[in-house]
Every structure is written in C-alpha cells, then in structure tokens.
Amino acid sequence: MTDITANNTNWTELQQAEDMAYFRADLCLYSPESYSLDEKREICEQMDLSSRAIEEALRAGFESLPPFAQDKLLDLLKQADPSDFAWWLEILVGKTPDCVSDVL
Predict the structure, then answer these.
(1) What does pTM read for this prediction?
(2) Residues 47 and 28 sit within 8 Å (Cβ to Cβ)
(3) Rounded Cα distance, 5 and 17, in Å
(4) By C-alpha distance, which of 40, 43, 41 is closest to 17?
(5) Cα angle: 79, vertex 84, 87; to 5 degrees
(6) Which of 57, 44, 48 is nearest to 14 (CA)?
(7) Closest CA to 15 of 54, 43, 52
(8) For residue range 39-56, what is the model confidence (pLDDT) as tens digits?
(9) Radius of gyration of the chain (CA)
(10) CA nearest 9: which of 55, 41, 72, 57?
(11) Which candidate, 98, 71, 100, 72, places its Cα nearest to that of 85?
(12) pLDDT, tens only, 17-30
C-alpha cells in the first residue's frame, strides 16, 4: 500500500482505499450472487488491509510524538469520549481494555 511514517502519511489515500473497500463490500451484500467466493474473499481482505493501514498510520503518528504529548493526547481522548477511550488506547498504545488502568 503506502509507506507509513509520521511525516509522509497520505491520509486522503488511506481513507479513499478504505472507503472503496467498504463500498465494494456494500455492493457485494446487495447482490452476493454476482460475486465469486474468491472475489468475496478479496473484498474482505481489502477491508481488513485498508483499515489496518489507517490504524498503523495512527499508531506511527502517535509514536512519533514526544512522551509528554502522547500523555496529553491520551488525556484529551479520554476526556472527549470515555466510552471510546479503550479503542483509542488499543490503537495508539497497543493496550487492550483490560490494561487501561496500567496506562493511566
């Protein structure tokens, strides 16, 4: 896909790839008989790959921040929407929701 670093991430390209993968999935759901099993598998793989690429880019950007900025960002995310904080923590830090107290 794309070389993912904090300085050269093409967010538009990543988002468009994910949008296209999910659009193809919607089409497949609308008319599943029009797709072979291999095509359906490819659609699923593209959905997974495109979403993972975005998550990896988010993590790379987060890891490029100095520690004090990482802490501040995590604090802001927790304050903004505590119900989604575990998801952000898993994406950015690689911690599962069970480990949330270890980071805070």
Answers:
(1) 0.76
(2) no
(3) 17
(4) 43
(5) 120
(6) 57
(7) 54
(8) 999 999 999 999 999 999
(9) 17
(10) 57
(11) 100
(12) 999 999 999 999 99
